[in-house]
Amino acid sequence: MSFSPLALITAAIAAWLAIGVAGILKPRSLRVVRVLFPIGAAVAVFLAIFAFAALRSVPEARVLPLGLPDLPFHLRVDALSAFFLLLLGGASAAISLFSSGYFRAGEGTAPGLICLQYHTFLAAMALVLIADDAYMFMVAWETMALASYFLVTTDHRLPEIRRAGFLYLLIAHVGAIGILLCFGVLQGGRGDYTFEAMRAVSLTSFWPSVAFFLALFGFGAKAGLLPLHVWLPEAHPAAPSPVSALMSGVMLKTAIYGLLRVTFDLLHAQQWWWGAIALALGLLTALYGVIFAAAQTDMKRLLAYSSIENIGIIVAGIALTILFHAYGKPLLAAIALTAVLYHCLNHAFFKSLLFLATGSVLHATKERSLGKLGGLIHRMPWVALLALVGTLAMAGLPPLNGFVSEWLLLQAFLFTPTLPQSFVNMLVPVAAAALVLAVALAAYVMVKFYGVIFLGRPREPHLAYAHDAGRRERAALLWLGIGCVLLGVFPSTVIAGIDHVNALLLDTTVSRAGESNWLLLAPIATERSSYSPLIVLVVIVSVVLLTIQLVHRFWHGRSRRAPAWDCGFPLQTPRMQDTAEGFGQPIRQVFEPFFRMERHLPSPFDDKPRYFVSATDHLWYWLYLPIARGTEAVARLAGLIQRGRIGVYLTYSFVTLLALLLFVR
Amino acid sequence: MSAAALLSQLLQVAIALLLAPLLVGWVNQCRAWLQNKRPPSLFLPYRTIHKLFVKDAVIADNASPIFRLMPYIVFGAMCCAAAIVPSLATALPFARAADAIALVGLFALARVFMALAAMDIGTSFGSLGARREMFVGFLAEPALLMVLFTASLISGSTALPTIVDTLAHRELAIYPSLAFAGVAFTMVSLAENARVPVDNPATHLELTMIHEAMLLEYSARHLALLEWASALKLFNYSCIGLALFFPFGIAEGADFVAMLGAAPALVLKLAIGGASLAVIETLSAKMRIFRAPEFLGTAFLLAVLGMLVNLLLGS
């Protein structure tokens, strides 16, 4: 092949930017956008193909003749970048296709402008993944943050959306400072900010730990790690659904990419206690996210909290990789890393699918609150079917994809008792228990999500006029749904791809060590553990078909329709179904200390009884509001010297001059 | 995979399908004896299933395809589980396809579909049952996994055949970790199979039911399949318990003759297990639903304790 993968990837990024610029030429025209977004989707597919080629080839670096004088942009694509580019291409192809049918005129920002922001966002994410120096990385990272900020505030006329966007921008920048400082530590005083130079530097004493925790803080803010997760549940409901899908499905993964790049590529000596701390943080995030997800009543907030949960699981996996790597257990580390990357891929697919499905529901019903939905499976069968795939995948059920990564992670957890430190040996099973609890709760959350939106009877009369998604939207959902099934059914094939990353970062592979083949997944040996989703799927499907056949053959298939029985209660209204609050109530009760609850119960004598409950985050009151109040107090003190009279200001200048003359000379 | 192995695999599933209703009948009979009632026939569950298959199905007006497909999916998942659980023999070919974690996943699949179907009609009891079932499930599932993890730490494997082989060949001594795990497993199985302290299989009292509330709208062949599936679930759980804690007499290898030899041992063990289930159910009272987290939380902690004891003592 005459073109190298990196050149082709760069060309795809340039194509995205060109599409964005083309969109701005006629900003108000919806028709142009309808054409441009599918082209962007095609570019995404090509990007995925190029990335797949790059995954198998040797790392390739190149210097772009752009940037400042003496500070050119360095690009490099290796297996780790290629894997995340593949994820970006695969998920964003569907999201772009969906967007082409989703954005309408008159909803906030003009469509052409959205096209520019959207494609800049995509290009910036791709550039983050192929950046090879800190300068390029930060430029791309900030472009990504800004582009996504503008996308989040598409409906900028609403004050709460502007507020959510501001919060997002603020935390993104707090995180960016952490990353910047991390790179500052990593260059080790040499002043050379290319990743090549950082790899060559070997930091001593406590500096590697400083760099790691700065990276954990900076990338954790982007990923939504506790306690910097608060922007997710605000920004996702505010953003249009394709943007939420892109942010949750893909952008969070760029943070994971950054964390992996810093921890396993740029830093050399991993300490076991980094792993222990990150493990605790990851599991806490996972539990926190899922418990809050169970209590939500807004469908996009629910998904946002569940993204926090998934990021927690991913970070726990990274922590486990660090732990094993530090103790010199390469195979276990490789299994944990495989689980991490696999879960990133899975989450990109099923979470994008679910966010896009909420977009279709939102357009069809104009409702985001779970309490006003219901029964949509009859009106929107396509969306309901594909959302079911995403729901089951996210609930971590075999034979879909969410289960595979959880299975791998549990395998990594289970084979620990060979670590030299007995304290860590005890920690790991307890961590496994917490992980399993989070996964089991995710199933609860997903039943709530799917059951309240799509099943039951419509809670509002106007839902009877809901319409199914358009053809492009359906095609996009179908792409992601098929992705979920294929990723679930052919795990060994996927792992063979992920192994290139394992080989790069850990010098080990999973495929060759175990007894896996395309049918059977056995990372260590079949005697230890094995799983074959394809066989499970085929057996279940064939038993279902066979049972249907046999029942109809031996007995009959007669049935008739009648009103629901419900223990013989005659008056059944849709209001008697469980609401989202009701479904979350047991979780609120069991995990009460996690929430800051405000409850208003009506007294028996109320004419207009009103029940009100709100479950908010303690961290707002324990962390964010004190910081905000402190900032305000400092600002007020600074305000004291601001008098608004020129005489006073001249006095300040005079005093300053005097002080300078006195002390500096 | 040889034809003989496939045949013995099918034999195990067939025996599970046939024995499962009998196990339910036996538990009911024991319970009736203990409660000074005249017992129903041992074969009543078969007759009930047949009767239901003969009847015409009545389906609620706004039932979606999920509602109609669910009984088949749950039945399929339970059959799949019956093929994995080592009830008669350990080295069956299908056991490779799913290990202990995947087995728990299969049970979760059945539970999630059941809860979704219960919400599908949009009645108050259906969604109440779904919520409660998921509530019990999210606590019971981790506890079950922890029990299995304890066993897999002992054997260094999550593959059920290896676990059972290892446990069958240990010396006859009390393993503290297994003792903890055994208690936890008993508690989890009671909850998962809708048995007395958590749920009552005989109740149709509106406010207390969990499992039955989800099946309220089902009739005829769908209900028959669900009854059969829940009998299979009880059978599967009993076999997991027997395989983990009393693996003696189980056939090692997929030998046809050895499996037939293992069948009487299995029946005997199941008879004792079913009788003890009846004793537990008779002796305990049903708890309020919000006591269930305490019960299952205890099971979860016991299982985790079992794991830690295993790591501490190495046994």
Explain this structure to me?
The complex is a heterodimer of chains A (665) and B (315). The longest helix of chain A is centred in the middle third of the chain and has 36 residues, at 330-365. Chain A has helices spanning 5-25, 30-56, 79-102, 111-130, 134-152, 159-186, 195-200, 207-223, 231-238, 241-266, 272-295, 299-326, 330-365, 376-379, 381-394, 401-414, 422-454, 471-489, 491-506, 533-554, 580-590, 618-640, 646-663; strands spanning 60-68, 71-77, 559-562, 595-600, 612-617. Chain A has 665 residues and is mainly α. Chain A contains 23 helices and 5 strands. In chain A, the strands form 2 sheets. Chain A has a two-stranded antiparallel ribbon with strand order 1-2. The longest helix of chain B has 32 residues, at 3-34. Chain B is an all-alpha fold. Chain B has one domain (3-313). The relative contact order of chain B is 0.17. Classes of the chains: A mainly alpha (665), B mainly alpha (315). The interface between A and B is large, with 84 and 81 residues. Strand 3 of chain A pairs parallel with strand 1 of chain B, so a sheet runs across the interface.
Number of helices of chain B: 11
What does the overall shape of chain B look like? globular
Main beta sheet of chain A, described? 2 strands, antiparallel
Radius of gyration of chain A: 26 Å
| Rounded mean pLDDT score of chain A | 86
Biggest interface: A-B, 84 and 81 residues
State the helical fraction of chain A: 55-70%
The whole-number mean of residue pLDDT values of chain B reads: 85
Q: Provide the succession of SSEs of chain A.
A: HHEEHHHHHHHHHHHHHHHHHHEHEEHH
Low-confidence stretches of chain B: none
Order of helices and strands of chain B: HHEHHHHHHHHH
Q: What is the strand arrangement across the widest sheet of chain A?
A: 1-2
Using DSSP, what is the number of strands of chain B?
Answer: 1
